[in-house]
Design goal:
This protein has 8 helices and 20 strands. By secondary structure, the chain is α/β, with parallel strands linked by helices.
């Protein structure tokens, strides 16, 4: 009788867990995939309740085992000309609709739009300016963000945000609770923030060098370069360029958007290659990770890796190189962001200002 009761109790407990709870392996052991806070209109997974890893909050939150569609969908070419963005040059408040917890320190924040029936309307690789007023701070904080969503998304847009310990804006935004009524973040778009536009001069090869959150404009460029054209059913025109990304992160767990990049490598491996360069990962971890992922290197992005991943500068206009990352990366690789001159490693290798674009 006692055995039967225990068996029934175990069976009931097993049924109480979501049938779609999945686990992803990492070099630190099996971890449940992070989920979403808020009611989604784009994802409809089963939900469960878990303790939050959200800085600044102590309550439980609704979470799912699913990543947002922007980290799982294939690349989509959804090109819109400049000057058609829903946000003008005046700050407009919009609600945070959903918060997806991608890792303990990185989040996808899904914001609403002034017109919920239209797409954001942002041109390729352009960024928005976000503004918040934090209690106790004298000044309004303004930071640029490039969405990872495309114009295929209607009524909202996604930002991939890493919460830095000393980052006032990122810590504040990732601490917010989704709400359709509270509007704590304002956005605007100015023509100065319109970047290089697709087709990027129609090169045969695009080399990308990104560090940390500098991956976001690269995501937009990859969408445009190799994605299926949302507005044109005929995708048989000019052959898309080959794209090679050198992506610098501190550790394996710091890699932003890795799930998405891995999926794109599977579906578009003939057009895309990715090398992750980890500066602070232990050597023994690198050795183990390299057994699982052949595209992982230790250290910093350096000449050896660039020569291996990119064609020679002698290829002229057939080669474009995009760079986006922290100031130290610009200094080492191509010279200051606000200088057109190409110096650093890329300059020493012979790449010119016509070939190198600094985001």
């Amino acid at each position: 009788m006692l055995y039967s009761t225990l068996l029934l109790f175990t069976f009931v407990i097993a049924l109480s867990f979501p049938s779609k709870w999945t686990f992803s392996s990492s070099h630190q052991g099996a971890q449940p995939q992070w989920g979403v806070m808020g009611a989604s209109t784009h994802e409809t997974p089963a939900t469960t309740t878990c303790a939050t890893n959200d800085p600044g909050t102590a309550h439980d939150q609704r979470a799912t085992t699913f990543l947002p569609s922007t980290l799982t969908d294939p690349p989509i070419k959804s090109i819109i000309a400049p000057d058609l963005c829903q946000f003008s040059d005046e700050f407009t408040k919009v609600p945070l609709l959903e918060k997806f917890i991608v890792s303990p320190t990185s989040f996808v924040l899904r914001f609403g739009l002034p017109d919920s029936n239209r797409a954001l309307g942002l041109s390729t690789c352009a960024c928005l300016l976000a503004s918040v007023k934090i209690e106790g701070e004298d000044d309004i904080i303004v930071r640029p963000y490039t969405p990872i969503s495309t114009n295929a998304m209607i009524g909202s847009f996604d930002l991939l945000v890493k919460a830095y310990p000393d980052g006032k804006m990122s810590s504040y935004m990732t601490s917010l609770t989704p709400s359709t009524s509270e509007m704590s973040v304002s956005f605007k778009h100015i023509s100065f923030n319109v970047k290089i536009q697709y087709p990027f001069g129609s090169p045969k090869f695009i080399g990308m060098i990104a560090g940390g959150t500098g991956i976001t404009p690269m995501i937009q460029a990859i969408h445009a370069a190799i994605g299926e054209d949302q507005f044109n059913e005929d995708n048989s025109g000019t052959s898309p360029p080959k794209v090679s990304l050198l992506f610098g992160s501190r550790t394996f767990d710091d890699i932003l958007g890795k799930e998405m990049l891995d999926a794109w490598l599977q579906s578009h491996g003939d057009r895309l290659s990715v090398t992750h360069v980890l500066s602070n990962e232990a050597e023994d971890s690198i050795a183990m990770l390299s057994d699982e992922d052949s595209n992982i290197e230790r250290g910093f992005i350096r000449r050896e890796l660039i020569e291996k991943a990119f064609p020679s500068p002698d290829n002229g206009s057939d080669v474009k190189i995009f760079v986006c990352g922290p100031p130290a990366m610009y200094e080492a690789l191509c010279g200051p962001r606000d200088s057109e001159e190409v110096t650093g490693i890329l300059g020493e290798m012979g790449y010119t200002s016509e070939q190198v674009y600094k985001f």
